[in-house]
Specification:
The complex is a heterodimer of chains A (about 90) and B (about 130). By secondary structure, chain A is an alpha+beta fold. Helix content of chain A is about 25%, strand content about 25%. Chain A has 3 helices and 5 strands. Chain A has a 5-stranded mixed β-sheet. In chain A, strand 3 and strand 4 form a beta hairpin. Chain A is globular and about 35 Å long. The N and C termini of chain A lie far apart (about 35 Å). By secondary structure, chain B is an alpha+beta fold. Chain B has 3 helices and 8 strands, in the order βαββαβββαββ. In chain B, the strands form 2 sheets. A 4-stranded mixed β-sheet of chain B has the order 1-4-6-2, sandwiched between helices. Chain B has a 4-stranded antiparallel β-sheet with strand order 5-3-7-8. In chain B, a hairpin with a 2-residue loop joins strand 7 and strand 8. In chain B, helix 2 runs antiparallel to helix 3. The radius of gyration of chain B is 15 Å and the shape is elongated. The chains are: A alpha+beta (about 90), B alpha+beta (about 130). Chains A and B meet through loops of A and strand 3, helix 2, helix 3 and strand 7 of B.
Chain lengths: ~90, ~130
């Protein structure tokens, strides 16, 4: 299946603003993040603790709705989903 | 009205848009690019997840309108490269009385800061830093 990854701020500087990826059907949010980390050591370092846990400043949206990066990593994605990756918000 | 723009913010224009005959109070908030104590900030880069930020700001505006019985609420946020002193965000709230207008304006800026997908990067003599990251 095909999904889109959108990245902002510090993560945009690493991953680019937007990319489409072919991933295995039924892949989870965590599996997609792992795939991004496998392709980019810099993303791995920025987004993951050495233990493999997601760093606590990594924020996520699926289809423009915030998900809990600690609770929802096992959520299965479907074809056409968009995962957004970004650091803490700082508007205003 | 909600807007995210790379053009300069015109506060007078927002005030005109928010005027209502039945409003006795208008409160404006203007957030500006602040230098640090050493004068080291040269520019601020502001980035938005445009579609998601517009939807979130629209929701925040609606909440403020109904919670504080506002007559009008205008919100504009800048994106792009800004110099020290330039406006980053402007909010104008009209209400029957000042209490609702102050409360509505404060609600919108506080919720915007915690919920809207927007980011700032300080660019200065000593390097660059995304605001909000340790």
């Amino acid at each position: 299946m095909r999904v889109k990854v959108a990245a902002f701020a510090s993560f945009r500087e690493i991953l680019g603003r937007e990319r489409a990826l072919e991933i295995r059907d039924g892949s989870t949010v965590k599996e997609l993040l792992d795939e991004l980390a496998a392709a980019s050591p810099r993303f791995r370092e920025e987004a993951f603790e050495p233990s493999g846990a997601l760093r606590d400043y990594v924020l996520l949206m699926v289809n423009r709705k915030r998900i809990d990066p600690q609770q929802d990593l096992a959520r299965a994605l479907v074809d056409g989903d968009e995962l957004a990756v970004f650091p803490p918000l700082a508007g205003g | 009205m909600i807007e995210i723009t790379d053009s300069e913010i015109c506060l007078d224009e927002l005030i005109k848009r928010a005027k209502r005959d039945d409003a006795g109070a208008m409160v404006t908030f203007l957030g500006t690019v602040r230098d640090d104590e050493t004068g080291g900030i040269e520019q601020l880069e502001v980035e938005a997840f445009q579609e998601a930020a517009l939807a979130e700001l629209q929701a925040i505006r609606q909440e403020a309108m109904s919670r504080f019985s506002l007559k009008a609420a205008e919100v504009v946020h800048r994106t792009g490269t800004l110099a020290v002193g330039e406006s980053i965000v402007a909010i104008v709230c009209s209400a029957g009385h000042r209490e609702e207008a102050f409360s509505g304006c404060r609600y919108i800026i506080e919720e915007l800061k915690s919920r809207a997908p927007l980011w700032k990067k300080e660019i200065g003599k000593k390097g660059e830093r995304w605001v909000g990251r340790a």
